[in-house]
Design goal:
Radius of gyration: 44 Å
Helix content: 25-40%
CATH topology of the largest domain: conserved putative lor/sdh protein from methanococcus maripaludis s2 fold
Largest sheet: 6 strands, mixed
Number of strands: 21
Low-confidence stretches: 17-21, 24-29, 285-290
Strand order of the largest sheet: 15-16-17-21-1-20
Amino acid sequence: MTDASLTTRYAAAAALLVVAISGCSESSLPDEPRLRPVRYLTVTDDSIVRDRSLSGTLKSSLESRLSFKVAGTARSVPVQIGQRLQKGDLIAQLDAAEYALQVEQAQASLVQAEANERNAASTYERTKGLYANDNASRNDLDAARANAESAEAQVRAATKALEIARLNESYTRLYAETDCSIASIDVEVNENVAAGQQIAVVSCGDDFEVTLDVPESVISSIDEYTPVSITFGSIPGTLFTGEVTEIGVPAGSGSVAFPVVVAVNERHPSLRSGLAADVAFQIDSTSMDNGVVLPLAAVIEEPAGTFVFIAVAGETADEAVVRKRAVSLGELTQSGVEILDGLAPGDRVVTAGLSAIRDGQRVLIN
């Protein structure tokens, strides 16, 4: 083999070796990691909670819970829920047979007492005549007078007993004291009823109010005459206005809800006690904590606490680095959950893609 041919073959082998080495080097280079896209929400001043919507129940501003003054068995309940009543209309009636017998017994006792009174009075008059003629002693006169006075007292007691018996008989009938409507009925026919047990609730007048419980995070921001907006699911498309009229204290030591009464300014034919109401408090944001409302999906609950991911600006406009940040939760609202502490205007809170990211990871933002 000639030197020229050997040189040619060595050159070809060297070229193939360079190509092979080059191919191996290119294939061994790691791929650039693909950034995971996430969505975010920028916290702005508009995110601050200004209105709070709470649920309550509508009732008449003049509402009475009616009951019998005596016990008995319900014999008649001739009314229905929602029925309009006029003053004097019968609402319910107990079996009055027992009380009628008591009236008859009291009448008989009165008749007997009156007879004893007449007899004692007559005896006293005769004894006085005998005493005047020295035919009766002083003791006889005193005894006759005492018997007459005792008989007179027995008549008065029997008269009062008859009045009480008649009152008890009248208490077996429950009437409407004024024009009203039936809000609820709590007794059935033939049911045994105790004295003072609620029989019915009546609503009087055309003025209504909403009762609701307000959490402690909001109660410090409202007072009497705070304006509100009220909506009812049963009256769609109609917005009512109102104002706070009463603010109570929690019922128990462990309760954090304050009872509040809101008067409804407008009248409407569809308003009636028992309707569910949504009350939106129109609160100045400067009087509240800087609460921010976020979607529930943006909040991470862990044993160590509650966190969100903040997208911090990265090397390019479409890149960011996510950082975990602890936050404090407030109330759950219709729009999401309230964040009381941990966020500030300008923070970009990740709202989608949280399950596939970790603290310090680079992501694509869109």
